[in-house]
Specification:
Bound molecules: flavin-adenine dinucleotide
Structural class: alpha/beta
Largest sheet: 8 strands, mixed
CATH class of the largest domain: Alpha Beta
Order of helices and strands: EHEEEHEEEEEEHEHEHEEEEEEEEH
Distance between the termini: 21 Å
Number of domains: 2
Length: 309
């Protein structure tokens, strides 16, 4: 007979692995699917300095520690990309390229991916001057000069945050007008250490071990100039990828999955956690908290289903 797991967790980042730990410790039969490295976005983060219990820890080390805990509990970890999740009915189907799995409940922990500039040296300087998260890495640039690319609300909030830490912040945007709310724009206009570089795009990155200079090009005249910076924050968008879910899953305008405070989606037996859902803050600690809540609620959900049989 085909095995049916209690929970299938899709995504082995902090939210998915924490959900796994809580599920296993509650006695549930759980499996985690991960298409890449355990730890998700954390595994590629240079340094984490805002996770309680570590003064500073490399992202890879933190990711490995969570994975070690998952492994010690004997939780099956399938290194497979899930390409379809069929959510209707009592039993859900998780399809990978070569195998299919069944589970009574699904936790979606797929995260969200950042949009890259897609220019040369971007990967080389990742964690060496380039960051995609001002809240996470802003503090490494105390009294330094940084630039931020973007023009939406998140970008401007991040510039405001950075302007209270860094000596100088360049705000680079490709249009002559910022997309962000006027109130956010005017809050920055009063800041002496913020310089707007509008109608420009970042076209080159240079430095030795660390990012030192960025080249910006005018979209009006094609003229180029160099800016000396210690850091560059890229904030041109980030989005969830929920296409693998078959079913009428409720999402907000930006595509993030809508859940209630118990991490339940509108689909029966389908929960969502971490960066993929419409949350107030996308950080490791909130992702882990979501995972813990979701597994606790899946436990209750499965008990209720059993009783109603
Ligand atoms: C550059 C950077 C630096 C950061 N620094 C910090 C920091 O210092 N402190 C902090 O608290 N937060 C930081 N964050 C935010 C933090 O990393 C995220 O909030 C957190 O990782 C979200 O966890 P998650 O489990 O929801 O998603 P993720 O960590 O994104 O994990 C999702 C996982 O799902 C997997 N997956 C996706 N699709 C599939 C599929 N179809 N099949 C199988 N697996 C799949 C992915 O491979 C990934 O491993 C940073 C983020 C970035 C991008």
């Amino acid at each position: 007979m085909e095995k049916i797991y209690d929970i299938a967790i899709i995504g082995g980042g902090p939210s998915g692995m924490t959900a796994g730990i809580y599920a296993k410790r509650a006695g549930l039969d759980v499996i985690i699917f991960e298409k890449s490295t355990p730890g998700g976005a954390v595994a590629s983060t240079f340094e984490v300095a805002n996770f309680p219990s570590f003064l500073k820890v490399s992202g890879m080390e933190l990711a490995s520690k969570i994975f070690e805990q998952v492994s010690n509990l004997g939780i099956p970890f399938e290194f497979e990309e899930v390409n379809k999740i069929i959510t209707d009915g009592e039993i859900k189907t998780v399809e990978c390229f070569k195998k299919t799995f069944k589970a009574r409940a699904v936790i979606l922990a797929l995260g969200a991916s950042v949009k890259l500039l897609n220019i040369e040296n971007e990967r080389k300087f990742l964690g060496r001057g380039i960051s995609y998260c001002a809240t996470c890495d802003g503090n490494f640039f105390k009294e330094k000069t940084v630039a931020l690319v973007g023009g939406g609300n998140t970008a401007l909030e991040d510039v405001f945050y950075l302007s209270n830490i860094a000596k100088k912040v360049y705000l680079i945007h490709r249009r002559d007008e910022l997309r962000a709310d006027k109130i956010l724009v005017s809050r920055l206009e009063g800041k002496e250490n913020v310089e707007f570089v509008l109608n420009h795009t970042v076209t080159a990155l240079s430095g030795n071990e660390h990012l030192e200079k960025i080249e910006v090009s005018s979209r009006l005249s094609n003229e180029k100039k160099m800016l000396d910076v210690d850091g560059l924050f890229v904030c041109i968008g980030r989005g969830p990828d929920t296409d693998i879910v078959v079913g009428d899953l409720k999402r907000n305008e930006a595509g993030y999955i809508i859940t209630d405070e118990n991490m339940k989606t509108n689909l029966d037996g389908v929960f969502a956690v971490g960066d993929i859902r419409n949350t107030q803050l996308r950080q490791i600690i909130t992702a882990c908290a979501d995972g813990a809540i979701a597994s606790t609620k899946v436990f209750e959900y499965l008990k209720t289903k059993e009783k109603s049989k």
